[in-house]
Structure formats: structure tokens, C-alpha cells
Specification:
alpha/beta; TIM Barrel; 2 domains; 11 helices; 33% helix; binds S-adenosyl-L-homocysteine; binds iron/sulfur cluster
């Protein structure tokens, strides 16, 4: 049993006033909290010894009583297209993957960061590597924020003297179902959005859900300006029950109603993701049904050609047939895009993430 008196206070995840209060509670001036805030959220610093404007005694004291648990990057892989995949480890040795995607091929490109919210995923979609790798636990809010700081720290080692805001978009599309870890995800959004800290605008943040209806309704009421992406993938309950087991709890009708509610409450358009599985959901009639369901919602549709996963039976459609499906949607007057693929050569693309640990050995790095 850990001695409760010995547990250090976690500072990561605290906002400025919480840090000020903490410093006051240990007999220090409140402004020290503001200094620490800057070190954590602007300079991605975890070590009190590096916080050079704090008095030496305070640094020593904090080192004994508090921690800033920015996750360790155990491995990283860089794709030919500049996508970077990090294997991150938390205090309890649990691991997730976090992916940095350049927004263009330009030298001064900014990056989109794809965050994980759970270790594994309980939803267990039939086509997804994460789902198949089993579920272990949800991440804490500070662990999700830690993925951002840790990735920025790695990036700043590679891109010296780059601008502060190299990472300017966040997508909750890594491992896990964000709306099944609701409080931690919302709290992490507030930290990431805080203009005195990481300062990424809500409109530059997207949450992707497999269709957790209760979570969508709750999110609508938060009145945040984040983008909601719903992973639809099928236009009948029969198929969706097989692909996304959460559909058995929340069938299509209730999901589309929740999307509509979100639109009405927030005034924001919703994006629907649709993974193209060859011979499963990419026929002409699927496109027609998709148009029939989504047109009234004025939705954006993001087509994702399937990234094949070893051991799973689903296949990626040919480039031509993906383009054909896209064209069918455009012909129906829908606002659809065909997603460019990033990082497939390092298995960093959608749905290829898993905690890479087989038989006690790291694999695939
Ligand atoms: N759990 C959330 C967010 C993470 S998955 C969700 O399901 O929405 C992000 C997106 O990648 C989802 O749309 C998911 O369905 C899709 N995806 C999963 N596995 C994939 C694969 N192998 N190829 C392409 N897309 C995949
Ligand atoms: Fe979980 Fe999303 Fe993968 Fe489904 S697609 S198993 S919800 S991570």
C-alpha cells in the first residue's frame, strides 16, 4: 500500500489559479504558481530543477512534494511523409501512441496532433487494431495534456527555433473512445484551449466518437466550439451492429437524432467519418443511402480508405473505387472529402494504433 503521506501532488493539469492556490497552500507567494504555469504549458518542462527563475530551495522542496508527469517517449518512428508516431509511457507503465501529422509538405508546416484517450478501447470495432488489442484503462486528464507537451518537446528537439505554436490542431482520434472518458477529455480540452497556456483554439479541436449518444448529448450542452466527428461507417443497423458494436446500444436512428441535437445546440456542423471497406460498404447503393441519411443534416463527410490491419479480414478498396465512391457523394450534392493517408508506412494511420507489446517485446518499432 502506498503511504498516502508520501504521494506527490500532480501539478500537470492544474490551471493557473489552481497552481497559485497550491503554492499558497505550501506557504509560497501565488506568483510562483504563475511562473510554474509558464514552465509547464509554454516550455513543456517537467523538471523543477530546470525552472531557473524559482529559488533553489523552492525547486528542491517541490521536487520532494510535487510532480509534473509528462509521459516519457519510449520510441518514435518517422514516416516518409513526415508523420511521427510516438510510443508514450505513463507512470504505471501503461502505453499509448500519439501521432503528429504535418499539414503540408512545406518546410515550415504546422502540425496536427492525434491524441489517445484510453489504453486500448472497450468499443471493439471489428476493423480497428486498437479495438482488437483489448482495453486496459482510461487516461487521466493530465495524461492527455501530457501527450501534447511531450510531443511538442520532441518536436522542438528536431525543429530548433521554430514558432511556439508548431502544433495548432488537435484531433481526439487516437486510441480509445473519447466520450467514454468524458470528464477527462473535457478537462483536457480546457487545458489545451487555455489562452494563457497551450492556447489552441476550440475550432481547431476535433473529437471523434464511435457514436456514444449520451456523450454527444452532454457535449452539445457544454456549448464548446469544438468539432464533432461521428464514425458512421454503415447505413443500416444490420451492418453497423457488426462493425461498431456500440450500435447495438445506440442504433442509427438515435445516433442521427443526437447529431441533430448537437447541431441545434451548438450551431456547428458535424463531420461523419466513413471508412471504406472493400465489398462491405462501398457500393453505389451505400452512397445513395448515405446521402439520404446525411443530406438533411448539412453534414461534412470524411471518407477514409481502410488501412489494413494484420489478422483482420477487411480490405482497402482500390484507389479508383474510392474516387468513384467520393464522386457518387458529390453527385448527390454532399460535402465530402476523401482523406489523404498519412503515416501508413509506420502504421500511424487511423485505426493502426495499438500498444505495441507482444510477448514482452516491443514490436514494429
Ligand atoms: N474511437 C473514436 C476515435 C478514434 S478512431 C472513433 O472510433 O471515432 C478514429 C477513426 O479511425 C474512426 O473513424 C475509426 O473508425 C477509424 N478507423 C479505425 N480503424 C481504422 C482502419 N484500420 N482504417 C481506417 N480507419 C480506421
Ligand atoms: Fe475504439 Fe474507435 Fe477503434 Fe472503434 S474505431 S475500437 S471506437 S478506437
Amino acid at each position: 500500500m502506498p503511504d498516502p503521506d508520501n504521494v506527490k501532488t500532480e501539478l500537470l493539469g492544474m490551471d493557473m489559479s489552481a497552481l497559485e492556490n497550491y503554492l499558497v497552500s505550501i506557504g509560497q507567494a501565488g506568483f510562483r504558481g504563475r511562473q510554474i504555469h509558464k514552465w509547464i504549458y509554454e516550455k513543456n518542462t517537467a523538471s523543477f530543477y530546470e525552472m531557473s527563475d524559482l529559488p533553489r530551495e523552492l525547486r528542491q522542496r517541490l521536487d520532494g512534494t510535487a510532480v509534473v508527469s509528462i509521459p516519457r517517449v519510449l520510441k518514435q518512428r518517422v514516416s516518409r511523409d513526415g508523420t511521427r508516431k510516438f510510443l508514450m509511457e505513463f507512470e504505471d507503465k501503461k502505453r499509448v501512441e500519439t501521432v503528429l501529422i504535418p499539414q503540408s509538405y512545406e518546410k515550415d508546416s504546422r502540425f496536427t496532433l492525434c491524441l489517445s484517450t484510453q489504453v486500448g478501447c472497450p468499443v471493439n470495432c471489428a476493423f480497428c487494431a486498437t479495438g482488437r488489442s483489448g482495453y486496459q484503462r482510461s487516461l487521466k486528464d493530465y495524461e492527455i495534456v501530457g501527450e501534447v507537451l511531450s510531443s511538442r518537446r520532441e518536436l522542438s528537439k528536431k525543429i530548433k527555433n521554430g514558432p511556439d505554436n508548431l502544433v495548432n490542431h488537435i484531433v481526439y482520434m487516437g486510441m480509445g473512445e473519447p466520450l467514454l472518458n468524458y470528464e477527462a477529455v473535457i478537462s483536457s480540452i480546457h487545458r489545451i484551449n487555455d489562452h494563457r497556456g497551450i492556447n489552441i483554439g476550440q475550432r481547431n479541436i476535433t473529437i471523434s466518437t464511435a457514436g456514444e449518444v449520451k456523450g454527444i448529448e452532454r457535449l452539445a450542452r457544454e456549448k464548446l466550439q469544438v468539432t464533432l466527428a461521428i464514425s458512421l461507417h454503415a447505413t443500416s443497423d444490420e451492418l453497423r451492429d457488426q462493425l461498431v458494436p456500440l450500435n447495438r446500444k445506440y442504433p442509427l436512428k438515435s445516433l442521427l437524432q443526437a447529431a441533430n441535437y448537437f447541431i441545434l445546440e451548438t450551431g456547428r456542423r458535424v463531420t461523419f467519418e466513413y471508412v471504406l471497406l472493400d465489398g462491405v460498404n462501398n457500393r453505389h447503393e451505400d452512397a445513395q443511402k448515405l446521402a439520404y441519411l446525411l443530406k438533411p443534416l448539412l453534414a461534412n463527410i470524411n471518407l477514409i480508405p481502410y488501412n489494413e490491419v494484420e489478422g483482420l479480414p477487411y480490405r482497402k478498396p482500390s484507389r479508383d473505387s474510392a474516387i468513384q465512391f467520393h464522386q457518387w457523394l458529390l453527385n448527390e450534392g454532399l460535402n465530402a472529402t476523401l482523406r489523404e493517408e498519412h503515416g501508413t508506412d509506420i502504421e500511424a494511420a487511423c485505426g493502426q494504433l495499438r500498444a505495441e507489446f507482444k510477448n514482452g517485446n516491443l514490436t514494429k518499432y
